[in-house]
What does this fold into?
Amino acid sequence: QLVVAAAVLTCLALPARAADWTDCVDSDETVAMKLLLADTDVMSIDTIEMETDGKKWSTAGGAGVTKITTGQGFDTDEQMLVDVTDEKGAEIVAQLRVYKAFEGEDYVFGGTLRIAGAGAWAVECASR
It folds into this structure.
């Protein structure tokens, strides 16, 4: 029992890993993709929300929202690639391609967002 108690206390003492939102929008703010990324050693997308032209998509679903699923995602120091699929994972609904540049405390994340049947946009992304 002492070993189990020690293991539980050790787990409780580990720091919690945070999650951060990454928001990508075009210059006219006509399209937005928001990603909730867990702070892990590999890319872990908790939530995706998209909106354009009155249409909404989300991994959480909900009233008036089309349910989507994370297809695949890759994140490095230089780029982030995310594919979003329909609820069944059968078709790609959206593709986000972002390049990252850092210089000192300055950074820029920018790329493209394509949503099937809706359009393609140049987007700028920021973490919050």
